[in-house]
Design brief:
The structure holds 2 protein chains of 2 kinds. Chain A is of the alpha+beta class. Chain A contains 4 helices and 6 strands. Chain A has a two-stranded antiparallel ribbon. A two-stranded antiparallel ribbon of chain A has the order 3-4. By secondary structure, chain B is an alpha+beta fold. Chain B is globular. Classes of the chains: A alpha+beta, B alpha+beta. The interface between A and B is medium-sized, with 24 and 37 residues.
Chain lengths: ~110, ~625
Amino acid sequence: MADYGECNPKKSALRAIAHFPVPGKYELLLCTQCGICAGACPMGAIKLENGAYVIDRNECTGCYTCVEACPRGALFTHPKESSPIKCKGCGECIEYCPRDVLYDAEKEGE
Amino acid sequence: MALPGYAGTVLRVNLTDGSIKKEPTSPEMARDYLGGRGFVAKILYDEVPATAHGFDPENRLVIAPGPLSGLFLPGSGKVEFGCKSPATGGYGDSNMGGHMAPEIRYAGYDAIVIYGAASRPSYLCIDNDKVEIRNASKYWGRGAIDTEELLKSDLGREFQIATIGPAGENKVKFACISHDFGRQAGRTGVGAVMGSKNLKAIAVRGSKTIPLADAQKALQKGKEMYDSCFSKPGFKEWTPYGTAGVTDWVNEVGAFPTRNFQSGWFEDHKSINGKTLKETILVTDKGCFGCPIPCGKYSKATFKGADVYVEGPEYETIALIGGNCALKSIHEVAYANQVCDNLGIDTISGGNVAAFAIECFEKGMLTEKQLGRKVAFGDIDSVIYLLEKIARREGIGDMLAEGVKSAAEKIGKDSSRIAIHVKGLEVSGYEPRYAPAMMLSYMTADVGAHHNRSWAITYDVAVGRDTLDGKAQKVVELQHVRPLFDALGICRLQWVEIGFELEHYADIFPLVTGLKYTWEDLIKISERIWNLTRSFNIKHIPGFGRSWDYPPARFMEEPVISGPTQGKYIDRQTIDRLLDEYYQIRGWTADGRPTPEKLRGLGLGFVADDLAKGGR
């Protein structure tokens, strides 16, 4: 929401996948900033900025090669957005996860 | 901008001729009725003929999230299902969590109105603007959980599914609508109405943005609301056990329904309470959309050597399937819970009906021959046997599927004394014979005996259980606050359970909708809706009035047989005093009818005109 200025969780940059009724578990699809998407992008439109790989929407052609390349399934598409949706490492999700499931691994290590 | 806070469209589906219409959401209806329960009440009042039975194709199934559903704020995952109730013949609605409310909004709809009846088993598939009525013969006859799994495999796992089980197909009058592998619109027979329309399921997927009056400020306020929830002591103390955590307290105060409400105290409560659930069968917490305090407890129990996966059991199931049927193992309660969920039976009414049948057998009102076997309290096989018979309307199940009120009328032999219901809806999980406010809550709830309109047992205990002073006033207040959540499309448990402040909702509402309402304005709308649903009952139920607001004879004449409330009951004279005071506070006549002045003062002049014409 912070990124697009609208209320639409379908444009969020992470997903919780529910595995029910069996075994009753959640799986989090979350970007680790591994950079594989940047290597896969034919336009070189994904760049490292302040520790996070960010899609330059002006250079992105919407080919979705990065979405296919992501080993964690953590890049997402939305019918109204031509570019894929990717985590920028802003940390808002950490602040608002009521379960403390999300944390900043670098800060935790300090 | 389109209507801020609203998805913008009301979807109308005529299952008889297969036509699908889309209408813009009316700004006046949004202004006067908010959404959710308010929309359900207004649409049902306007459109359902007074003479139509619950299973008449002219009955409507209305599904409505609210203006706060699907937004970034605590508990925004609630949707209301409503119809003329086949259980009571009056106004019916039931509230459901999970992820359906947001999905309906993201698909672009503020309400879905389903009417007519399909000629063959069908399901409704909504994919943003694309709406289709599809053949459901593949799914018909299957369990609700099985159907949800199959539809997700067929359509894509991102579709949100609401479905009925065999009980809904067979029009069991307390059949529920199921969703999210464990969330239900459980009460008032909404699942039976869906079944009467030959509608097996509704599948929804959406991707749209909800327009907000001030998106940035609403986001900021949403963050503040989450922060406030995180800071409450109950955030960490209440959440691990969810609703099941209240079991011990209810038993301690002698309000735990036991053996068909013969007692308010269950000797084996510790083996089915929240602690036992958490320590023996819990797999994971399971939250609804946007929830910081997930009450959903997903469990893996064992029954006769087999694994049983089920969401729950939550408190109401522990009370009505557990205590009321005297099951003393959490595994047995979980198993019966799973059986109900897959059959599509409301566990509250289901537990009541099973317990009623067992007591009837014990007292010789039903015979072994009629029942098809012996049944007993504390025997899981008896409970499962009855539930299966009911869902398929086989043998004794056909009579029990009508609910305890109808069943008692057929059985006779004074069995209506022990048919625990008000208006035809079975009583939920609080023995009220030493809790006048809770008793009055059950008596006067618009849908019949349900705690969701006014959960006053804590108030009774806090201010003194013998006194009547202030009780009617409190019930009226709660009947405005609690159903308001159902109109806004959000969950009340943040407020009820961890003390989250109500003022937050008044703060965020204008940021979402642009409507400059105060909390008092919102409460006034809730009172309007309450008077509308009361008037619906007057219009639809022949002879409706005061006589429909009395509890079963057991509650007025028979003392509780054991436990801390042993010997207690509330006599008819006291019941009458409570009712008189309640009607007076509400501005209703001594027969429980809203006066024309009251209705006009609430902006319900059209209702006053209707009722003046004779009401039907």
